[in-house]
Design brief:
The termini are far apart. The model has no long low-confidence stretch (mean pLDDT 89). The chain is α+β, with helices and mostly antiparallel strands and 213 residues long. It has a five-stranded mixed β-sheet. The protein folds into two domains: 38 residues, no CATH class; 142 residues, GTP Cyclohydrolase I, domain 2. The protein is elongated and about 65 Å long. It is built from eight helices and seven strands, in the order αααββββαβαβαβαα. α1 crosses α2 and α4 runs antiparallel to α5. Bound molecules: zinc ion. Zinc ion binds next to loops.
Length: 213
C-alpha cells in the first residue's frame, strides 16, 4: 500500500454550528413534502393537521437541544459526609432518535458514579440522560456524552454508564430484527481501573437487565 498523503479534506463544520433555524411554517412545509413523497395528499382531511402535529412532536422529541446537561448537574451538594461508595441509578427509560434514520431508539440507561467532592440529586442524573436522548443520536456517542458530563461537573472518583436499547431502524426496517438490544458502556476512573468496582456495578444492573422495555 502506498503511503502517499491524501489531499487535505475541507474542515468539517463545528459540531454545534448554529445554522439559521427554519421557521415553523418552513418545517410544516417540509412535512407536506414528505407526505407527498410518500404518496399521499397533504390536503386531504385526515392529513390537514398533520404537519402542525409533527412539528409539535419534534419540539418534544428534540427538546434536548435547548438544554445544557452541565448546567443541570451544577446544583450539587458538597456535604457528602464521607460517603464515597457507588451511587447507582438503574433502569432510566429513555427515548432517543437515530441520527441516521430519524426513528426511535428506545431503551434504558444505568448510571453510576463514585462521589468524591460532591453528590447530585438523582433526578439530575435522569435529566442528563433525557437531555442527551432528546437529540439526534447514535447510542455510542450518547453513552460517552452522559459519562463525560458527569465526570466533568462532579469530578467523582469514577463514572459508569451502560445503555441498552432497541433501534427501530433495525427492528422495523432494514434487516427487521425485533428483540435485538444494543448494549454500550463507558467507564471512567475507578470503574475502568478497578475490576472489583466494575463487577459490582455490572452485577447491580444485571439484576434487571433481562426484562424488556
Ligand atoms: Zn438508524
Amino acid at each position: 500500500m502506498s503511503k502517499t498523503k491524501k489531499p487535505a479534506r475541507r474542515a468539517a463544520p463545528p459540531e454545534m454550528a448554529p445554522a439559521p433555524r427554519p421557521s415553523r411554517e418552513q418545517a410544516q412545509e417540509a412535512v407536506r413534502t414528505l407526505i407527498r413523497w410518500a404518496g399521499d395528499n397533504p390536503a386531504r382531511e385526515g392529513l390537514r393537521g398533520t404537519p402542525d402535529r409533527v412539528v409539535r412532536s419534534y419540539e418534544e422529541f428534540f427538546a434536548g437541544y435547548q438544554l445544557d446537561p452541565r448546567e443541570i448537574l451544577k446544583r450539587t451538594f458538597e456535604e457528602v459526609a464521607g460517603y464515597d461508595e457507588m451511587v447507582v441509578l438503574r433502569d432510566i427509560r429513555f427515548e432517543s432518535y437515530c441520527e441516521h434514520h430519524m426513528v426511535p431508539i428506545i431503551g434504558r440507561a444505568h448510571v453510576a458514579y463514585m462521589p468524591s467532592k460532591r453528590v447530585v440529586g438523582i433526578s439530575k442524573l435522569a435529566r442528563v440522560v433525557e437531555t442527551y436522548a432528546k437529540r439526534l443520536q447514535i447510542q455510542e456517542k450518547m453513552t460517552a456524552q452522559i459519562a463525560q458530563a458527569i465526570n466533568e461537573v462532579l469530578e467523582p472518583n469514577g463514572v459508569a454508564v451502560v445503555l441498552e436499547a432497541a433501534h427501530q431502524c433495525m427492528t422495523t426496517r432494514g434487516v427487521h430484527k425485533p428483540g435485538v438490544m444494543m448494549v454500550t458502556s463507558h467507564m471512567l476512573g475507578a470503574f475502568r481501573e478497578n475490576e472489583a468496582t466494575r463487577k459490582e456495578f455490572l452485577s447491580i444492573i444485571s439484576r434487571t437487565a433481562s426484562h424488556d422495555t
